[in-house]
Amino acid sequence: xxxxxxxxxxxxxxxxxxxxxxxxxxxxxxxxxxxxxxxxxxxxxxxxxxxxxxxxxxxxxxxxxxxxxxxxxxxxxxxxxxxxxxxxxxxxxxxxxxxxxxxxxxxxxxxxxxxxxxxxxxxxxxxxxxxxxxxxxxxxxxxxxxxxxxxxxxxxxxxxxxxxxxxxxxxxxxxxxxxxxxxxxxxxxxxxxxxxxxxx
Length: 200
What we know:
Layout: H1 6-51, E1 56-57, E2 62-68, H2 82-85, E3 93-95, E4 102-121, H3 125-130, E5 133-134, E6 136-139, E7 142-145, E8 153-169, E9 172-173, E10 188-199
Antiparallel strand pairs: 1-10, 2-4, 3-10, 4-8, 4-10, 5-9, 6-7, 6-8
C-alpha cells in the first residue's frame, strides 16, 4: 500500500506556481525593455531630424540693422542698410565715401545658427567698376578677403548661435582709376548680404 505525502505535493505545487510567476514576470520585463528601446529609438529619430533641419535663407528673421562709420560710431539714419538684407528691395547700400572701416550689425528676431553668408557687390557692371568695393572683412573674430568681382561670394562661418552679427569692412578695392592715377569715384556700394542657417 502506497502513501502519498500531502506536504510534498503542496511543496511541488508551490514551486510550480512560483516558477510560473517568475516566467510571467520575466516576460513583462522583456516587454518593458522593448518599450523603452522603442522610445529611445523615437527620441534618437527626433534628434536626428533636428540635426538634419535644412539650411535656408534666414534674412526674414532680421529685425533691423545699424551702419558703423570709420570712427566706430553709428552713422545717421540717412545711411539705411535695410536694403542689404531685404531681398524685396530693388535698391542697394551706397555711401559717398570709400568702403574702408564701414560696418554693419544685423539683429535677428530670435536666435539663429548662421552657417554661411553671401556678399553681393553691385550687380550693374558700370556702377561696380566706378565705385570702391569691400576687400577684407572681419566677422565673429574671423578675417576674410573677398575677390574684386560682382559675382556672389560665399563666406563660411564656424557654426554659432546668435541674435546679432557684425561685419566690418577693413579694406577696399578702389574704383576706376583715371589717367592721372586717381579713383574717379570714391563711393562705396554693396548690393546685398544674404544669411543662411537654421532657427533654434
